[in-house]
Design goal:
heterodimer, A: mainly alpha, MetI-like fold, 14 helices, B: mainly alpha, 2 domains, two-stranded antiparallel ribbon, 68% helix
């Protein structure tokens, strides 16, 4: 009996080891598949454009150069669109996080007479959407079209974020809020001085989502501001490059071979595209790993309770 | 709950939460008393009405022969004509086929890959390694579809794209394939792209569910001689079942919402018969062709089907005694 148990334990540990080897190998492959495209883009962006045409640049630049970045940031359109992207990300995230938290606080107060009404009004909107044309017509009627504010005002609140933040605030110990009120603090002061600082873990999550949304958005530019170069975003500029090379798939069924720049500053669409890709993803890549702890928690909270 | 709040003096004793007991007068009195809370929420309620509810008024366009120049009173009402035209339009039916096909592929592929990856991650014993894998696997979720599409186009390129180079190097093909230039590959490419972008992210919720499984169960199973796979199938999978069911209900409601960006960004002339989905149809008719009425009709169709599916799945789950959303 004892012998056979040991035998089975040994057998399973051999199988276990095999499973582990396969599993770890799989994870390494997964990491390579995930990250290789980015490393390749980085290598191409740092490689001489003329040299890249020959192909064969994979993980490391063959002929090192900053020329591509130099060229990209000398383009007035790209530089300005980077500024628009950055500014809407910062402003949009600050406004949306503050306002969402404030509404979340009011509907977390059990004594608030409008609590149920406001909550239902918000939750309902998660199930339907006016759709493309009705929204488009609204922006036009409100004269938000063709302005910077069309990026900010429709996103003053994130409905899903309100619900997630509310779940978090409801978990805060009532005693802390109570003691603030005893010291004579009004609702707004309680919110600003007590609730907001205590909610930082969940706000880190929602503001990451909001910031990523703003930084990555191009569709609202396309829809409302496509005729205004001065309101273009970085992603929209990259999107236009992508569409150009799509068009070349349609027409010539192959790669695009145009080149630009002066003799001193030789660039190709391929290397500019790689450079723009890196510029467009770098800020996110540098931020999200540090917020991992928060968004993993936030996702779980929102997913299970919301 | 209410009782303790009354004791704490949060709710005045002898009165209900919404002040039902004393009627309108009490309600107004409370409103004045709680003016700070009212001021902090009602302006946003107005925002909500303007930006989320008012656009619903635009649904009337679907029942008109809408002319942008005319005022609401001057529009010609046509009843369900737009919907009838839509369902007899070959293009719409093709688009519906594409939408459902891509949706089904993404649905099945999304669940299978995320659950598999979550289980495999859960089996890793080296915590530092696990964390590195997770962090890297979240990366594609955060980048925009514009960047993702640029990457996908680059790796699939017929001119030095890594996929073609590997396949040629291994001798599977002899000349590069124009992956995005042929419609028949599109659904597969889209499915793979969605997995690449979101599989890591989608494991978060399953991994969280797995942490709630009592480790004693695994230990007991191990003592009883259950192997790795038996433990996975008899403990881990049943442990995450409630979460899986909730997510299936949520996703069933999204069956017509296959997204817009990947199809739009990777779509091009040659693959259009396979890449065009409902969202692109709505955009094309609305913005490019200026046929607002048909575009809105297609949008209404999409929303109504989504809501019906969501509630049906929820109801079905309730009937079967399973988890439900509401």
């Amino acid at each position: 009996m004892a012998k056979s148990q040991i035998a089975s334990a040994r057998y399973s540990s051999a199988g276990d080891r095999l499973f582990d080897i396969a599993n770890y190998t799989f994870m390494v492959v997964l990491m390579i598949v995930t990250i290789y495209p980015f490393i390749n883009m980085l290598a191409v962006s740092l490689n001489d454009a003329g040299d890249s045409i020959k192909g064969g640049v994979y993980l490391w630049p063959r002929v090192w150069t900053w020329e591509n970045y130099d060229y990209v940031f000398k383009q007035a359109t790209i530089l300005h669109s980077t500024w628009i992207s950055a500014s809407r990300t910062i402003l949009g995230t600050l406004v949306s996080t503050f306002c969402s938290a404030m509404v979340a606080y009011t509907i977390s107060r059990p004594e608030f007479v409008l609590r149920k009404f406001v909550t239902i009004a918000f939750v309902l909107t998660m199930y339907f959407n006016g759709g493309l044309i009705p929204n488009f017509l609204l922006m036009r009627e409100l004269h938000l079209m063709g302005t910077y504010w069309v990026y900010i005002i429709p996103g003053i609140l994130g409905v899903f974020n309100v619900i997630v933040i509310r779940s978090f605030i409801e978990q805060l110990p009532e005693g802390i809020l109570e003691s603030a009120r005893m010291d004579g603090a009004g609702e707004f002061t309680t919110f600003l001085r007590i609730v907001l600082p205590l909610s930082m873990p969940v706000l880190a999550t929602t503001s990451l989502f909001t910031a990523v949304y703003h930084w990555n958005s191009w569709f609202d530019v396309f829809l409302y501001n496509s005729s205004k170069v001065e309101l273009s975003t970085l992603q929209y500029e990259l999107m236009k490059m992508l569409q150009n090379s799509n068009a070349s798939i349609s027409s010539s069924g192959g790669n695009m071979d145009g080149s630009g720049g002066t003799a001193a500053n030789f660039v190709t669409p391929t290397s500019i595209r790689a450079t723009m890709t890196i510029v467009a993803s770098l800020p996110i890549v540098m931020v999200y790993p540090f917020l991992q702890k928060y968004f993993v928690k936030g996702m779980t909270l929102g997913g299970v309770k919301g | 709950m209410l009782k303790t709040m009354k004791q704490q003096g949060v709710v005045p004793a002898g009165r209900g939460l919404l002040g039902k007991k004393s009627g309108l007068g009490f309600f107004l009195q409370q409103l004045v008393k709680q003016r700070a809370l009212v001021l902090m929420s009602v302006p946003f309620l107005l925002w909500l009405v303007l930006f989320k509810y008012v656009p619903l008024w635009g649904w009337t366009i679907a029942f008109q022969k809408y002319k942008p120049a005319k005022s609401f009173g001057d529009q010609t009402w046509v009843g369900l004509k737009q919907f009838k035209f839509m369902f007899s339009d070959d293009r719409f039916l093709l688009v519906l086929r594409n939408t459902l096909a891509m949706s089904l592929i993404n649905f099945v592929l999304g669940f299978v890959t995320a659950i598999t990856l979550a289980i495999l991650l859960n089996e890793l014993r080296k915590m530092a390694f696990k964390r590195v894998v997770q962090t890297i696997s979240y990366l594609p979720h955060f980048i925009s579809w514009v960047v993702a599409a640029t990457i996908i186009q680059t790796v699939l390129s017929a001119d030095g794209g890594i996929v073609n180079e590997i396949l040629m190097g291994l001798g599977f093909i002899h000349e590069p394939i124009l992956w995005l230039g042929e419609g028949k590959y599109f659904w597969g490419i889209l499915g793979a792209s969605e997995v690449w972008k979101n599989v890591g992210w989608n494991t978060i919720i399953y991994l969280a569910a797995m942490t709630t499984i009592d480790p004693a169960q695994y230990e007991a199973a191990e003592i009883d001689g259950a192997g790795r796979f038996q433990r996975i199938f008899h403990i881990t999978l049943p442990g995450i079942r409630p979460v899986v069911i909730i997510l299936i209900i949520l996703n069933l409601g999204q069956i017509l919402e296959t997204g817009f960006e990947p199809q739009y960004l990777l779509g091009n002339g040659p693959n259009l018969d396979y890449s065009e989905n409902l969202e692109i149809f709505i955009l094309k008719y609305g913005m490019n062709l200026g046929n607002y009425s048909l575009s809105v009709a297609a949008g209404i169709f999409k929303t109504v089907i989504s809501i019906v599916l969501l509630f049906s799945a929820n109801y079905l789950s309730k009937r079967l005694g399973q988890e439900r959303l509401f």
